[in-house]
Amino acid sequence: LRDHELVFLEVRNKASYESRYLSRILASILGPLGSKIKMVFIDHKQAPELLEDYPRGRYVPIIRLYIRGQMVWEQEGVLANESADRLAIRRGLREVLKQHGFHRMGI
What's the whole-model pTM score? Predict the structure, then answer.
């Protein structure tokens, strides 16, 4: 995470509808950024420590933004309404990026 200025991490379960749904939304939001942001995808089984707060067997997709190695934004789960999820993610990312001096990122 420290090798890149901006890193977006998605902890996902490819078998989960919520994860596939969220991945599709993220691709449309973050795809246009191209090389400005490093995308990292981790299967939930490879990072069980990220899911310690959840009841056994319950999986919630987690997305995080790191700036210079520090986590600055996180979202757990989805609203299950595509427009609401898209809006919430865009606004959250846009605000945190502005706060850290990244303007006009195209989100």
Answer: 0.84
- Split the chain (107 residues) into runs of 10 and give each run's mean pLDDT: 85 86 92 87 77 61 92 91 95 94 82
Q: Residue 26, class by beta-carbon neighbours within 10 Å (0-12 exposed, 13-18 middle, 19+ buried)?
A: buried
Whole-angstrom distance, CA of residue 68 vs CA of residue 106 = 19
CB–CB of 65/7 below 8 Å?
yes
What radius of gyration, in Å, describes the C-alpha atoms of the chain? 14
